[in-house]
């Protein structure tokens, strides 16, 4: 095994790795980050842009650094998907932003949720989305209102710093960390420590691209460690000590890769340091020449886990980590923590489905009120666009289930509603080709009518473009938004279908079959055909897997 040499031996054509001497920016994004660190945009919002409004924002801040503060320009209403590829970014946007509130580990108090709800109601036209990374995303935000929004969020310990951008984004943890009896380890402290030390730090505010972290001891692997850039997965070593197995290099988008185990055991008190070392490998050796090769999965594909471990230990940790065991397989088929779950203190956690993550400020305020009335005011967001209310005594569970149902929040949803996720899509996303949030709701409602008795776990993930924010490659039936030809030869909104994706012990990405393209109108029919085919052919005890 050879360790790459630093600046002294520069390869003929590098990929922009800082550690090999490529410090001069090799593309406009790298130039933007070098000219002014992304975090510096916060002060300009406070000092300048809140007064100038949208039209006074410097373009490199507007479409670049704003993301470091969780802000994306929003797609203008009424622009069809067929225009996405032909219009310039400025032609696709209106004067509003999407704003992502980071909720590390998905842990919220009722007061915090009420503040988010109030912001959505007052500044965001009462629209909110619970994302599949445990965030809440708001829409229709004006730059003039951002300082007030930050004040309100920060007053309750929330924020938007590095919720997007080439930075350490929200860190996932099991929403039931510290709550369930059977977890391997509670990762709450290591998430809290790592966030406190490194989020907003200039040390990691210029990474090659986004940096997705998961730290969890969940027995169901609910945070999807296989598809995060860096994951600490709860394990118990041969001495009976609980700690973490380190995985690096997962990611979806247009070139999906599963994370690799480095084979090391990380003690809880080492996690923050090891996370910083892995992040430093990415910062210094990550590819910066081409944006579409700037995720760590490409470095891992070239190096492999052995070399990655060696470089991590030799150059960044300056010590060897001990070997460690692999995690046990997930205990249950579904990773979403929907339903009524027994807490180790004897109370109950009550998880429920929204409508493919879509909610509103008024609904979130109602959830905060229910969490206080039926529990102890603790709420969790999941990595499957769901919510959980904690600490509900046995005698109050069914009353809470009924109250949630009044708001169309389902503790016992159909398999289709439970298993359907959708990304932001054409409604607000400038990259989208297809509308997704409302359409996904139509699909699951239609399937509920057509297959009322279907009760197997099934994942149907609907995405508005190839970027796979709602993970089409890991679904039983995954839909990737694209323009497709209908029967009359017209190009219309539709999907390329990917079948049979799943995470877990035999994780695999869904396969794209030639000719499996559907228009939006054909989508429910297609799902019904696949699901009926399974029902007709299944062997006793066989679970659905497309
Ligand atoms: Fe936007 Fe595409 Fe991501 Fe959907 S998958 S939110 S359309 S970038």
UniProtKB/TrEMBL annotation:
Nitrite/Sulfite reductase ferredoxin-like domain residues: 94-156, 342-405
Reactions accelerated catalytically: hydrogen sulfide + 6 oxidized [2Fe-2S]-[ferredoxin] + 3 H2O = sulfite + 6 reduced [2Fe-2S]-[ferredoxin] + 7 H(+)
UniProt entry tagged with the keyword Iron-sulfur: yes
Bias (Polar residues) ranges: 1-11
Domain Nitrite/sulphite reductase 4Fe-4S: 164-316, 417-546
PROSITE patterns associated with the record: NIR_SIR (PS00365)
Enzyme Commission numbers on file: 1.8.7.1
Keywords from the UniProt entry: 4Fe-4S, Heme, Iron, Iron-sulfur, Metal-binding, Oxidoreductase, Thioether bond
MF GO annotations: sulfite reductase (ferredoxin) activity
Chain residue ranges for the region called Disordered: 1-37
Pfam families in the record: NIR_SIR (PF01077), NIR_SIR_ferr (PF03460)
Cofactor or coenzyme needed: [4Fe-4S] cluster
Job of this protein: Catalyzes the reduction of sulfite to sulfide, a step in the biosynthesis of sulfur-containing amino acids and cofactors.
Family: Belongs to the nitrite and sulfite reductase 4Fe-4S domain family.
Protein name in UniProt: assimilatory sulfite reductase (ferredoxin)
């Amino acid at each position: 095994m050879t360790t790459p040499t630093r600046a002294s031996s520069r390869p003929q054509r590098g990929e922009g790795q800082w550690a090999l001497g490529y410090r001069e920016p090799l593309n406009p994004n790298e130039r933007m980050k070098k000219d002014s660190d992304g975090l510096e945009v916060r002060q300009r919002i406070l000092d300048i842009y809140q007064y100038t409004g949208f039209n006074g924002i410097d373009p490199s801040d507007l479409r670049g650094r704003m993301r470091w503060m969780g802000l994306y320009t929003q797609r203008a209403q009424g622009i069809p998907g067929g225009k996405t590829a032909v219009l310039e970014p400025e032609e696709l946007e209106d004067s509003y932003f999407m704003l992502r509130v980071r909720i590390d580990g998905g842990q919220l108090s009722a007061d915090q949720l009420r503040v988010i709800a109030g912001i959505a109601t007052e500044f965001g036209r009462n629209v909110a989305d619970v994302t599949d990374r445990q965030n809440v995303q708001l829409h229709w935000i004006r730059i003039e209102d951002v300082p007030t929004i930050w004040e309100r969020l920060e007053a309750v310990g929330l924020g938007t710093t590095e919720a997007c951008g080439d930075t350490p984004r929200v860190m996932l943890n099991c929403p039931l960390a510290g709550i369930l009896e059977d977890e391997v380890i509670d990762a709450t402290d290591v998430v809290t420590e790592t966030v406190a030390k490194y989020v907003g730090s200039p040390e990691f505010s210029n990474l090659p691209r986004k940096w997705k972290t998961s730290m969890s001891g969940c027995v169901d692997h609910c945070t999807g460690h296989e598809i995060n850039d860096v994951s600490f997965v709860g394990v118990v070593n041969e001495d009976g000590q609980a700690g973490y197995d380190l995985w690096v290099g997962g990611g979806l988008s247009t070139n999906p890769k599963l994370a690799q185990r480095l084979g090391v055991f990380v003690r809880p008190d080492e996690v923050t340091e090891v996370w910083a070392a892995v992040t430093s490998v990415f910062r210094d050796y990550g590819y910066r020449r081409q944006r579409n090769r700037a995720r760590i999965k490409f470095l891992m594909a070239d190096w492999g886990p052995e070399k990655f471990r060696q470089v991590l230990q030799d150059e960044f940790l300056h010590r060897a980590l001990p070997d460690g065991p692999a995690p046990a397989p997930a205990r249950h088929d579904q990773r979403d923590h929907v339903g009524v779950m027994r807490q180790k203190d004897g109370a109950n956690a009550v998880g429920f489905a929204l409508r493919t993550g879509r909610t509103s400020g008024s609904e979130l305020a109602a959830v905060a009120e229910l969490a206080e009335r039926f529990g102890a005011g603790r709420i969790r967001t999941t990595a499957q666009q769901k919510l959980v209310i904690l600490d509900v005594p046995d005698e109050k569970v069914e009353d809470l289930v009924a109250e949630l149902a009044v708001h169309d929040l389902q503790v016992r949803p159909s398999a289709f509603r439970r298993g359907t996720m959708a990304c932001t899509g054409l409604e607000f996303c400038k990259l989208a080709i297809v509308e997704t949030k409302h359409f996904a709701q139509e699909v699951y409602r239609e399937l509920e009518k057509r297959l009322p008795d279907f009760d197997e776990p099934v994942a149907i993930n609907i995405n508005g473009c190839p970027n796979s924010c709602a993970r089409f490659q890991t679904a039983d039936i995954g839909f990737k938004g694209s323009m497709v030809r209908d029967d009359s030869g017209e190009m219309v909104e539709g999907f390329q279908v990917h079948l049979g994706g799943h995470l877990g012990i035999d994780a695999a990405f869904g396969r794209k079959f030639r000719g499996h393209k559907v228009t939006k109108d054909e989508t429910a029919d297609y799902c019904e055909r696949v699901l009926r085919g399974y029902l007709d052919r299944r062997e006793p005890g066989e679970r659905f897997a497309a």
